[in-house]
Amino acid sequence: MTTADYVDAGEAIDQGTLSGKHGTAPPVVSDLDYERILNASSEPHNWMTYYGAYNGQRYSSLDQINTENVKRLTPAWMFQAGTSGMIAGASTYAFEATPIVVDGVMFVSGWDGWVWALDARSGEEIWRYKHAVPFDVSLCCGNVNRGVAVAKGKVFAVTGNAHVIALDAETGRKVWDKTYGDVRAGESGTVAPLIVKDMVIVGSSGGEFGVRGHLDAFDLENGEHRWRCYMVPKPGEPGSDTWPADGEAWQRGGANCWLTGTFDPETNLLYVGTGNPAPDFDGEVREGDNLYTDSIVAVDVDQGQIRWHYQCTPHDVWDYDSIAECILFESGGRKMLGHFDKNGYFFVLDRTDGSLVQITPFVDRITWGAITRDGQVTPKVYPDKEGDPVHFYPGPAGAKEWTHASYSPKTGLFYVPVQDVGATATRRRREFKESIPYWGAGVNVDLDNMTGSVSAFDANGEEKWRWRARLPMCASTLATGGDLVFAGEPSGEFNALDARSGEQLWQFQCGSGHHSSPMTYSVDGKQYIAVPVGWGGWAEGFLPGMLGAGHGSALIAFALPE
């Protein structure tokens, strides 16, 4: 047997330099600071942060495109991202990002470490950046990235190998690069960063590999690490009594924060949803409620400390992450928070203290258990015996996956993309091994007997209308001041619905399924609706019958004709 000295492979080729795109963007982000993001609603022509504003409503007051003229909507431009990449394959990548637009420049991320700057008027590429992601990164649920953040002349993104990076917004050149997760343990990064004050805040992915989820804050100027908030308490910390007293279950407990949080400057709290416990389906190895998994958690943004929590699914054995958006709104003089959970229930909380205001189901079929109106949880069906298959609704992708609901303050309604599909789980105990999937079951999602909808609810949990779809709805909704709701389907259709009645007013076939988040902006007085289109990701978890569907990679912008 022979040995050889280690050979340094050197730096990876910068693929961004091979594109022929070496432009310079105008300095539109140089003066974009916390105060402007705080007042994002006063700049409706821009979409400056992930949800459009800190409140997570995914609402724009733009109304040039409205119920009267939306039938004339037509494609204005298209950007082809391409499917190139050494890791991304046809069955793993998806175009899941939300584009950011500031004064005519669009910034958008893709799979495999891509970031692009585009002319928001024409879709012309200005620059591109490609992060060198190692081949051996462990990814649970697709090679995806959900977006960027911008501030103080920089573009911020996370990478598949759990780095948070800052790029020069004018040139795309890297300014700083910090590691915030252990890729060897199965941690990764998919979240869109959030700028709050002088910090960039990101969460970790990798709960299916038995890691301990956390939220991190970095100085946006130099990348200095400010704080880390773990979402599974260690022995002796509040909530640690919800984990086994002996053993290491808490160290591999999950509760990752893999979706962007929302923020209220008056409470100074960041509202974040947490992921499933690990292993997902084998609860016997982690007896207890398993805090703070499957919870809505309020974090002091200055200290990085949990102030209150509300657990939606205690001792989860169905893979019901509570990572979905926390929509902030006011009702009856109270500060409220709305959350559509994977477990099929719509929660409304008082966001000052986490107290429950109301809870109601938002999907027709719920068999895993029941939650009373006062929040009492009763499990009914779950995989509790080795090798014994158990069927339940909703399946592990939930009645609503990560894709976002929206809220219109104009109508007072929430618009939620609903997935009504079941699954069968068979418990299979596995020994924990670092960076190896730690599910605790074999899972088969139903291939038929499924449906979906865009459903409108008021803050009291009353369903006002339902637009029925042939397939589960696997993409976010967008609400606008033109009394419109936009929603894409897995089969490629992009729809505009009347926000007050649910009537379908317009449809366009985009050529690939939707699993992303549409947004809207305007340039030179012209309103655009933009949507990334690229089916894929964890399709076997929510719609396995479409694993072989066309995987596009286009960003399409629509506008009214001249």
Automatic annotation (TrEMBL):
Keyword Oxidoreductase carried by entry: yes
Domain Pyrrolo-quinoline quinone repeat intervals: 47-356, 472-529
UniProt entry keywords in alphabetical sequence: Metal-binding, Oxidoreductase, PQQ
UniProt cross-references to Gene3D superfamilies, sorted A to Z: Quinoprotein alcohol dehydrogenase-like superfamily (2.140.10.10)
UniProt cross-references to Pfam families, sorted A to Z: PQQ
Family, as annotated: Belongs to the bacterial PQQ dehydrogenase family.
Protein's recorded name: PQQ-dependent methanol/ethanol family dehydrogenase
Organism of provenance: Pseudonocardia zijingensis
